Amino acid sequence: MPIMTKRTIGDNDWLVTSQGGLGVIGQLLAATPLGAQLTASQVPEADHPDTSHRDVVFSVIGLLAQGQPDYDHIEAFRHDPFFALALSLDQVPSSPTLRQRLDQAATHEDTVHWNPLWQEATDTVLAPYINCHPIRIGGTPDVPLDVDVSPFDNGKTKKEGVSREGHADFLIKRNLRREAPEDWLALARAEGHAVTPREGKITYRGATMRSPRVGDDPERVVYEVVERTITAEGQTLLFPDIAVATYWTSLSQNPADILPWYPDHGTMEPYHSEYKTDMNLERLPSGKFATNQLILQIALLTFNLLRIMGQATLGNPHVPLRQPVVRRRLRTVIQNLVFCAARLIRHARREWACYARHNPWRHVLGSLYAQLT
């Protein structure tokens, strides 16, 4: 068995990078009109910049794709030839340039024209890879969204009823508070539809009208009441166990069809977590709200680029991870694909990235490059 002994540390002129997967991000960006649109745009306080708006924004995307949102992280790539080559940059901006340009672009009224660019680029890059699969009840297509209405201090923000103006249907779990489960069981027995999935268990589903507060108009409430007299293991209970789940809703469909929808909100929850933790965006880099809003818009595009990289590897037979999954989380994409060491080769007026033969992800990255070129 080889034993690690004392080694002499040296250096050479090899162009080696630890972000060999950034080229895939660059290929995806090249498929969008974003670069040309940013170059043609005007930021009044930067009429003739040495570093183009395109280079600034693409550099931010390159940082976010590595989970490095801070401005100062760009300094490590100022003289990195692969970073510029992967994202097709004419010049890598400095940290002050990055900060000033984003502040200028975010606060000036003329640059509100940038806002549609992110959505257009997202639509362009997602169209060939992503298919939306809405859920249907009664023929109406819907997409469940997990909306957290209290991420910050809610004091005097008056968010109540905000979804009404947008005409978005809602399905919100109620807090029973002081409502007795026995009262809901009595209502369910009188008005609900009973199903007996096994001996000793009865499930009631139904709908009623309740007012959220005294004086409010009544809203529809769907409920599911489960009465257990025998446990799943066959143990007879001395007193019946009553489980009640109730939901405010604007949907008019059958309660038996509506109730399975609520767990679907959990499908979105991991995506929220990835956005904050895997991309390290729990704390935004700027002290200005407008700039942070701009960074969030750029991060949304970057999130989708990373998501495409992950989804494109699902059916790849060369992926060393054998556990079957329906999505690959961003942390895995960043660690195994973006942070994939490569050597930049320059020969005969050509440049290409070369991956080590022992790297199990080299074939996966090769497939991604071939698929996107």
Approximately how much beta-strand content do the residues carry?
A: 15-25%
Low-confidence stretches: none
Oligomer: single chain
Major pleated sheet: 5 strands, antiparallel
InterPro entries: Tnp_DDE_dom
Pfam families: DDE_Tnp_1_4
Domain Transposase DDE: 248-372
Organism: Sulfobacillus benefaciens
Describe this structure in words.
With 373 residues, this protein is an alpha+beta fold. The protein folds into two domains: 15-128 and 275-372, no CATH class; 168-267, no CATH class. Helix content is 35%, strand content 17%. The chain contains 13 helices and ten strands. The chain has helices at residues 22-30, 34-40, 53-64, 81-86, 95-107, 115-126, 162-165, 181-191, 255-258, 269-278, 289-312, 330-338, 362-372, and strands spanning 15-17, 135-137, 140-142, 171-173, 193-198, 201-210, 219-230, 236-249, 342-347, 350-354. It has a five-stranded antiparallel beta sheet. A three-stranded antiparallel beta sheet has the order 1-9-10. A hairpin with a 2-residue loop joins strand 2 (135-137) and strand 3 (140-142). Helix 3 packs across helix 5, helix 3 (53-64) packs across helix 11 and helix 5 packs across helix 11. It holds the Pfam family DDE_Tnp_1_4. This is Transposase DDE domain-containing protein. Residues 248-372 form the Transposase DDE domain.
The gist of it:
With 373 residues, this protein is an alpha+beta fold. The protein has 13 helices and ten strands. It folds into two domains: 212 residues, no CATH class; 100 residues, no CATH class.
